[in-house]
Specification:
Length: about 80
């Protein structure tokens, strides 16, 4: 994550996800998601970063990515409620 903070954005595009993992949260940006693709410079090298829009905003704000255990999905029984 420290390296990602040092990346200097140069150009930005938006569009449909390409199936690459988000460089912030590591969850795949699927074709049904909007993706921000950033051309950046890091340690004198050009690279392409992929972000969900909310992850891009968090990256720009200097926030930490979500922990993996925070990404758990409730079970079907919990999501459906009592009954």
């Amino acid at each position: 994550m420290a390296a990602l903070r040092r990346a200097i954005p140069l150009k930005m595009w938006g569009g449909k996800g390409c199936g690459a993992p988000c460089d912030f949260c590591r969850v795949v940006v699927s074709e049904s998601d909007i993706e921000y693709e950033i051309e950046a410079e890091l340690d004198h090298q050009r690279l392409t970063l992929h972000f969900h829009p909310r992850c891009h905003d968090a990256w720009k704000a200097g926030l930490e990515p979500p922990r993996e255990e925070a990404e758990t999905v409730p079970s079907v029984k919990q999501a459906a409620g009592p009954g």
